[in-house]
Amino acid sequence: MKERKSLGFFPTPLHKLDRLSARYHPYELFIKRDDQTGLASGGNKTRKLEYLIQEALEQDSRAVITMGAQQSNHCRQTAAACAMNGLECHLLLVGEPPALPDGNLLMSVILGAAIHYCGEEISQGQVDRLVKDLQLLGKNPYLIPYGGSNALGALGFADAVGELQQQLESLQLEMDYIFFASCSGGTQAGLILGKNRYNLKGTLMPVSIQKTGTDRNSLEIMVLDIVNQGSLLLEMEREFLIQDIALIRGYDEAGYGVVTHQEKQAIHELARLEGIFLDPVYTARAFYAMTDYLDKKLIEPGARVLFWHTGGLPANFHYAQKIL
Ligand SMILES: *Cc1c(COP(=O)(O)O)cnc(C)c1O
């Protein structure tokens, strides 16, 4: 059994969305509030980081390295987790330094992270060089992959299913469908593991955020790898197959981080009906996909549908022009 370092406030709330349910009658809509994990404005990376930061501490690392886009929620939450634990945080980010950091990047800077701008893409060479530099300084760096998405991080979302299951039992509720955003795959992998482990009823509805091919680099293959490694960690004695990995494609056509009328509509709709903010990159895309399924009755009318809110609030401030 792997240990985890407490970084957030759990369980996150689960509640009904009355006005949204009325809008999408006869569906009943609920939300799981991982935007409220409490770690520097919250989000789904908190659950993964509880395992990853624990391992960094166990290995006596003094510095953590991770990477992502400039508006990475994962990088911002990693910076916060490092600050809480007295660890140096090094972020390798795509692109050039902006004139003025905003949104998640602003928060990562405030949280004290060292930012390394990598240009058009982050190469393995850049990662290796930073690892080496920090090793030479005796910092024994701990490397966290994109999105914190490996088997260890995914355990956080396997646990999350147990948390949800308890909440549903005490409310005497069952969900028929669970929609959420899937991008680096750790959240989806963890939910698949947890669903099996805790016998969660209902169908997982992962919405692809970043368009990938159908080849060996596809998100399905990435998720499958994480799931099978996680299955070993959890001693589940089950091997998963590619058929076990669902993915809703078709809402990711615009590309990663491109805000279209779909994301804009979703952000305004949930804010105005329920007073809840989505984010423009992940949750708005997944939420739009969900409402499109409901509008088109692609799932059976009357179903109970859960939206798993994975956070991302600060990115709204970066994308303001696209959202308004
Ligand atoms: C990272 C992220 C996701 C996607 O989670 P993965 O585990 O990378 O698939 C979804 N929503 C938000 C807000 C995120 O920051």
Radius of gyration: 19 Å
Task: Name the helix and strand elements from N-terminus to C-terminus, one letter apiece.
Answer: EHEHEHEHEHEHEHEHHHEHH
Average pLDDT level: 97
Low-confidence segments = none
Structural class given helices, strands, pairing?
A: alpha/beta
In terms of quaternary structure, the protein is single chain
Largest sheet: 5 strands, mixed
Shape: globular
- Helix percent band: 40-55%
Strand order of the largest sheet: 1-2-9-7-8
Heterogens: pyridoxal-5'-phosphate
Please indicate the percent range of residues in DSSP E strands (runs of 2 or more). Answer: 5-15%
Question: Whole-Å distance between the termini?
Answer: 47 Å
Count of alpha/pi helices: 12
Number of strands: 9
What labels would you give this structure?
single chain; 324 residues; alpha/beta; 5-stranded mixed beta sheet; 14% strand; binds pyridoxal-5'-phosphate
Please, could you describe this protein's structure?
The protein is an alpha/beta fold. It contains twelve helices and nine strands. The strands form two sheets. Strands 1-2-9-7-8 form a five-stranded mixed beta sheet. Strands 5-4-3-6 form a four-stranded parallel beta sheet, with helices on both faces. Helix 3 packs parallel to helix 4. The longest helix has 21 residues. Bound molecules: pyridoxal-5'-phosphate. Pyridoxal-5'-phosphate binds next to helix 3, strand 7 and helix 7.
